Amino acid sequence: MVRVRYTGVSQPKEAFEALRPFHASLIKLQIQCRPFGPDYLVLDVVKKALNTAAYHFTGEPDFFALRPPRS
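Structure (tokenized):
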């Protein structure tokens, strides 16, 4: 029998938490673009790809959604 070891992101929530400022920067850039223009849509693709990757690794469908501050 062969043992298969899968390597990957060992702590996905922490990894994607570190990308939260990048996600916020994408939103700021998108605000500067004409709604649904080519620039806006390209940034939307990047944002959706980041959200999809976060969901894949963390299992949280809205990982980058606004959250109340922790106390």
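The mean pLDDT is 88. The chain has three helices and no strands.
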